[in-house]
């Protein structure tokens, strides 16, 4: 329980930080928007001016596309985002197993009750030959 609470506290702080504003290339964005811009840049590759020690024109650096960024971006765009809380995912499996076990137990109990009725009826009729009617009171 405490681990789950701590995860939510960290998430709350991250969400708070994500709403803060920053500036990228003269454009004011939230940090979440800035992170999305950086993700796109790494997914498609980008050029960046690197400062020189001299007053010459800055040289351009090329950063090729990164596989991790492409994968993350495509997963997000296609709705295949990983579950943030893996313990909740595991609990769902455990709970469904519990429900299945309860259903099997009830089916066994019902089957045993039916079998007991059938066997009890067979034992009552065991002493008479087939076709004889039960005696009337």
Report on this model:
This protein is α+β, with helices and mostly antiparallel strands and 137 residues long. It is built from 4 helices and 4 strands. It has helices spanning 2-18, 31-44, 67-77, 86-124, and strands at residues 21-24, 27-30, 46-50, 59-63. The strands form 2 sheets. It has a two-stranded antiparallel ribbon. The protein has a two-stranded antiparallel ribbon with strand order 3-4. β1 and β2 (27-30) form a beta hairpin. α2 (31-44) packs across α3 (67-77). The mean pLDDT is 78.
List the SSEs and their pairings.
Layout lengths: L1 H17 L2 E4 L2 E4 H14 L1 E5 L8 E5 L3 H11 L8 H39 L13
Antiparallel strand pairs: 1-2, 3-4
Short description, anyone?
The protein has 137 residues and is of the alpha+beta class.
Q: State the helical fraction.
A: 55-70%
Mind telling me the C-alpha Rg? 35 Å
Secondary-structure class: alpha+beta
Stretches where pLDDT is under 50 for at least 5 consecutive residues are none
Question: Which short descriptors sum up this protein?
Answer:
single chain; 137 residues; alpha+beta; two-stranded antiparallel ribbon; 4 helices; 4 strands; 13% strand
